[in-house]
Amino acid sequence: MQTVMLVVGVLLVNLLLFFPPLGIALMWNLLIPIAPALVTISPGLWRNICPMATFHLLPNKMGISQNIRMPEWGAATLAVISVTLLFIVVPMRRIGLNVDGPLTALMLLSAAFMAFAMGSVFEMRSGWCTSLCPIHPVERLYGTNPALTFKNARCNICEACSNPCPDSTPELTPTQGVPTKVQQFLGNFLIGSFPGFVWGWFQVPDYPPEQVGNAEIFTAYVWPFAAAIVSYILFRIGEHMLRYKPATRTRMHRIFAATAISTYYWYRLPGPASLLPDWFPLVSHLVTTPFFFWFLVLRSPKVSWLKRPVMASNYWSSRFESTANKNLIRVSPGKV
């Protein structure tokens, strides 16, 4: 399946370069609208087949990776870059990516190159999949309550390259298992701001690149950013009011995640369904919003994205249990 998805990715890039209308339709009107639901319902499946992850692990499979362990400060720095890229690239869709095939292809190729480069330096999935990838914060936000756990198709043995491993940690959230205050803030900011960010993004039209000026760039960013700030302020008020009620506060986090993805499909589904009956948008709203609130808020999260493979050896446990930095302790199968 990974090979199939890699071939699909290569074909998509070629379509974006040489048949832009078809490539854009497939990219932005088919694949991307499916992605949030897939990440929410079955993040493990997505993590198993993501083409960028395949590029990231190629150096390891080829035996050319330096396999340097990601330090705590490095993971925190990459987390900042990851969230920053997410909030920069998404508005870029409105000022070029949504209508420019070659520009979208360049973005995908740049991401693939970066994933490969990080895999050439850092251990296993620590350089991209669990750190620098701009999609990973959204995976942690939407994927808190997966429906299914899959076998890990990426790792035959667990090297504990990331601790805790996002793939093997039940009830994973943007704020769980992050060792630094910077990562804790980023997690809370993502939870609180993303509903507004998504809503604001849909208030902006698509601008062809040749029509993009300072006013269009300002509009493309001010709407999602301003709405994100308002959303985050409301989130912080809720955090303060519920500061002595951790269980209720956790549920509020899930409500914000459900609001974000419900907002996305509230606006997005009528787009690909423009050829369907007039009643379809209303029906889609009545179905998707209750579904995601039930799925993310009312269900009890119990499983991880993927099953943790067996540890590489007992060496890791003895090695890292003796180090001063307890965040680097290698974990045993089934534990986080």
Summarize the structure.
The chain is mostly helical and 336 residues long. The protein has twelve helices and two strands. The protein has one domain.
Features:
336 residues, mainly alpha, two-stranded parallel sheet, 1% strand, globular, disordered C terminus
Structure explained in plain terms:
This protein is mainly alpha-helical and 336 residues long. The chain is built from 12 helices and 2 strands, in the order H-H-H-H-H-H-H-E-H-H-H-H-E-H. The radius of gyration is 20 Å and the shape is globular. The model is unreliable at 315-336 (pLDDT under 50).
Q: Kindly report the average pLDDT value.
A: 89
Percent of residues in beta strands: under 5%
Query: If you compute it from the alpha carbons, what radius of gyration comes out, rounded to the nearest whole angstrom?
Result: 20 Å
Number of domains: 1
Shape: globular
Per DSSP, the total helix count is 12
Indicate the percent of residues in helices: 55-70%
Listing every helix as H and every strand as E from the N terminus to the C terminus, the arrangement reads HHHHHHHEHHHHEH
Spatial arrangement of strands, main beta sheet: 1-2
Number of strands: 2
Backbone structural class: mainly alpha
The biggest beta sheet reads: 2 strands, parallel
Distance between the termini: 28 Å
Q: What low-confidence regions span 5 or more consecutive residues with pLDDT below 50?
A: 315-336
